[in-house]
What we know:
This protein is α+β, with helices and mostly antiparallel strands and 180 residues long. The protein has one domain (17-179). It has helices at residues 4-7, 17-74; strands at residues 93-95, 115-116, 128-138, 151-162, 169-179. The longest helix is centred in the first third of the chain and has 58 residues, at 17-74.
Amino acid sequence: MTNAFATRARPRRERGAALIISLIILLAMTVIGVTAARTTTLQERMAGNLRQHSVAFEAAETTLRHGEAWVSSQIGGPRPQAVAPASCSAPPCDVLTLNDLDPLDKATWTGSQVQDGPHIADAASDPQYFIEQQQIVRDSLNAGQSTDESARIYYRVTARAVGGTGTAVSILRSTYAARF
């Protein structure tokens, strides 16, 4: 009689291939997880920065319209009839030559000609604006001559606002023409 155990093959030695493969798969999943977390964090930061820029832009736009409304109120409305505009001699309006004030220079926004705009709830600080009287242009069909008394006066309104954290800054300018 033969021994049943004797004819059976001996078990092979285990080499740990399953362990190595599972560790490689675990490493790959960890790399994918860390990359996904970094991507999500980056996208959240970009969305936050976009929101801060939008708040700054909207606050500057509101302040720009506020400055234009101030000019309009000083000259008697958008189409005054034979009313000369008020002189630009007190803040927020100054008679300046073109490019006297540099809106990118921080010192410009601390001067006496700068006025605070309307309060914006989401902004870190109140927006500011200043108005420059640019020039008076007489209306005439003849070059160099003005036979009637109508003219346009041009004002440049510059507004600056920051976002909720103060890192996003938006500076806007517009030219406002009033006929008198």
